[in-house]
Amino acid sequence: MNISRIGGLVAGMLLLGAGTASAQEPITISPEKVQQICSNRVPRVEAKVKALTDKINGGPETLGSKKWIEQKAADARKAGNTARADVLDARLKLRDAQLVKLAKAGERVAKFKSEHCGSK
Fold it and tell me: Which residues, if any, are the signal sequence (predicted)?
């Protein structure tokens, strides 16, 4: 999976079927749907957020991790390929932004879980 699509994937999974609504009309979900979300979707989203966060924070041997990108950028600089190193540095900045998005997604899932899923 392309890590640059993390934000869209997680945001799409977190919408939980809620579209845009006016401020006067609260969105309601049936108890059965809430139970289904709590038992099926929440654990999957939590696992995906954790897996992607672990991958980004992985070591230099983890393809796509920040340390892996740092190593590739250093190798490119050492070889005199500054253009490639600059591209990798930009990708490294994106990884930091993705970590922020993942943290926020994890917080939203945790909030939903605490408000609607009880002690699960």
Answer: 1-23
